[in-house]
Here is the input.
Amino acid sequence: MISTLESPQQEDHVVLLDSVPHPAADAAEPFIVTSDRRVILAYPIAESDFEQFGPFDSDDDPFCTVLFPDAVFHRLGPPGDIDLEIHPLASLGLTGYSVHEVMNSSLAAEISAVTSPGPAQRHFVITFQGSTFECVASDYTVVGVYGAGEIACREAFSLVR
Here is the structure.
């Protein structure tokens, strides 16, 4: 008797992450610092998150820095807020100026199939005004929330040493 085994269907499921500050609208673009397997993203945070991640002085321009360890893929590029509906995950709940994790990610599964065995891979998506950041990594950590982009930049560069 011949039996046929079917592989489970990969179904992307987009989940909002509230433990990470939301990106600010109409603000400076994010920046990325990378090393071999670490990706650090810094970006200005939304004013609605000032109370949760502050306190800040009135002249502060708060930025956060997020570390993605064991990264095997990352990109920062289109689409942005205006044309976010063209992103393949838009119909699954991807929203502007938000931080998401894609559960059962087809991208993470595809990458895992062609990379060396290592830590479990998770798919993260952060949407900005002019771009979308995607990263497949083992986890994420909000390293800090700072009163200015220059401080966030210094912290990001210190993490790649």
Notes: Residues 149-158 form the longest helix (10 residues). The radius of gyration is 17 Å. The chain has one domain: 13-158. Confidence is low (pLDDT under 50) at residues 1-9.
